[in-house]
Task: structure prediction
Amino acid sequence: MSDYPSILLENAVNQVGSLPGVGKKTALRLVLHLLRQSDKDVEAFAGSLTRLKNEVKYCRVCHNISDQEVCPICASHHRDKQTICVVENVQDVMSIENTGQYNGVYHVLGGIISPMDGVGPKDVEIDSLIARIEPEQIKEVILALPTTMEGDTTNFYIYRRLSALQQPELRISQIARGVAVGNELEYTDEITLGRSIINRVEFKG
Amino acid sequence: MSDYPSILLENAVNQVGSLPGVGKKTALRLVLHLLRQSDKDVEAFAGSLTRLKNEVKYCRVCHNISDQEVCPICASHHRDKQTICVVENVQDVMSIENTGQYNGVYHVLGGIISPMDGVGPKDVEIDSLIARIEPEQIKEVILALPTTMEGDTTNFYIYRRLSALQQPELRISQIARGVAVGNELEYTDEITLGRSIINRVEFKG
Result:
């Protein structure tokens, strides 16, 4: 006899427990919660996932998730199409949008270069980024990738590819790194703190 | 424009975010994880939930979740049918089974009496428990409900109902309460510690 009183229950718990960061106990709790909902609610829950998987599109310009061929950001007349912010994934677009500080467009790589995980430059949307950089159309590419070794590798690879385009007018920038706003220096890790001293900027009182 | 680049994505995130203890950020992470899986895997995921909801049965003896009319525990010839352990829910059965210390059968109430939440004695499986107590067939009822006010209320209600059956041979017990095994007294709450002194038991060296 298995640990579970029902194979159906066990299957559902195994499926939910396969999600990242969801252990077996949590999965069981979530599945039993769903089981207490109405048939209609469970259909709606499961249906929202299969419908997303079956019907989702990716913007043919920036590769963000979209319901249309072109996402609302790329389609908007109010966005600055001359500035492209390069991010790893869909969540990053949403995080930057939530700051309300950016009015350009995006390019979603769908991953970053990670030789350890077998992810090379061809496995992420770098070629399509380069193809977007038409002469005198794009003024700036902002690299907003994770501040990890993989992020740095990807930044450097993209930088080299962009430089090879020989467009001296194209500005290539990366997001600022340093002590997070609201953080005590005491609790900031040494590498971040060290770099924030080396890369100090002029104080504008 | 909504926060999400896609209505399909937003629906899925809202559904997953409606699960207890799952916030919007976690929901988005889980949904995007699912989106990276194959069509077949997403079907299997969603299908396991709808199938559970549509096909699940509850044991007609103990009300535990089951694939059959009678659950494997109630159907087993190796279990002591004269001892019934009363628990709140399915998880509790699994927790007690995992201890390997119990060989009787169960009765799953499917909730506990909670006047604050509008849950009365008729809303949980107490009548069916009383109906199981046939004269001279059941030797002991073990109350294994949460050690909360609602658990105590339910314990007391069941105790009164069982007493009213006038079966002097029927033993009614409850699980031991006290300092958890492996815990320091220093970190045990005062109520538990106080009661564990009052309810001290003879030391068997």
In short: The helical segments of chain B are 7-17, 24-35, 39-55, 72-75, 90-99, 126-132, 149-163, 190-198. Chain B has three domains: 7-55, 79-174, 177-205.
